[in-house]
Request: fold
Amino acid sequence: MNFKRFLILALALCLMLPAAQAATKQSTSVIYNGIITRRFANSYTNVYEQMDSDSRVIKTMSAGNKIEIVEVTPGWVGIKTGSGIGYVMRHRIDVTDTVDKTVPDYPITPQEYYAVIDRDVEVKAAKDASSDTLSTLTEGARVSICGVEDGWAQVIHKRVYGYINTNDLTELLPVADDVATADNETPISVFTSFYSDNPDRIVNLGVCCKFISKVLQPGETMNFNNEVSPFSAANGYKLAPVLKDGETKMGYGGGSCQVSSTLWDSLMQLPGITVLRRNPHGANAASYLPHGMDAASGTNTQNFIFRNDFDFPIRIDASTHDLALFIAIYKEI
Reply:
C-alpha cells in the first residue's frame, strides 16, 4: 500500500457515519418531517421502544398521523414521542420534507468510500467479530461504504447495516467529494446492493450490468428497459423470480429491477442527474434495499429513465461478485 492510500485509511478510521444516516439515540434534533403512510390506510402502525418488532410497543398511530424523524437506519426510523424517541419500521412512514438542510433528501444514502476485496472478508451484523455473518466476500468483490466507526466499515446490507473490519481491507478508497474537480480515476458516486444466492438470477444481474456499463454524453438519456431488453434466452437471460403485480413469478431477466434500483441509488447522489421516470415497487418495496430506495423496471408500466445534465460525460461501471452488485459512476474526461 502506498503512503497516500495508507493515509486515507488512517484518516477514515477516525471518521463517523454522517449524521444524515445515523443520528445518535440521545439526539432529538428533527431531520425530516413525515407521516404514517397511507399505503396501509386500514391498519395501525406500532411505535416500538427499540429497533426490534419484539420490543415493547410504546403507542400505535393511524395512517396520516404527522411524525418528526430524528434518526434513519436501513430498516427503521426514530421519531419523537411524548417520552423521548420511539422506532417505526421504515416502510410504514412517508417523508414529507427535509428539516435539516445539511443532510441529503430522504432516502438518498451517501457513500463515502469503497473497497476492492483481496481476501475472504465477512460482513458482520454488528461491530463484533463474534456477531452473525451476513455475507462473505472473496477476492475481486467491490463494496461501497457509508462511513467508518470504531475500526469497522459500515455498509448497507439489504435492510440493515453490516460491518467489515477495516483490518481486512487493504485499501479504503475515496469517493470524490467535489464533482467539479474529480478526475476520471476516482468515482463520483458508488453503491452496492446484496442479493440472494440464486444462480440464474445472478446470471441475469451480470447481463444487465454488461448492457448498462457505458458512457453517457452531456444531455444524453438512458432508458433502462431499452438498454437491457429484450429479456430472452437469446440475449443471455435465465428464468428467475420476477416481482410483478405484488406477486413473485418466473420470467426471463428476473432480477433486473435490482440493477435499475442500484443504478438509481448511485445516480441519486449526484446533482447533475435528472430522473425522468422512476417507479417504486409496491407498498413493501424491494427487500434487498431499504424502503424507498428502489426503482422498478422490466415491464411496460415500470421503467427507469434519466438524463445526464452534467456538462461532461459520465461513465457507468457495473459488476457483480460474491452476492454483491456494485455500481460506480465516473467523470469521463
User: Anything to note?
Assistant: The chain has a mean pLDDT of 91.
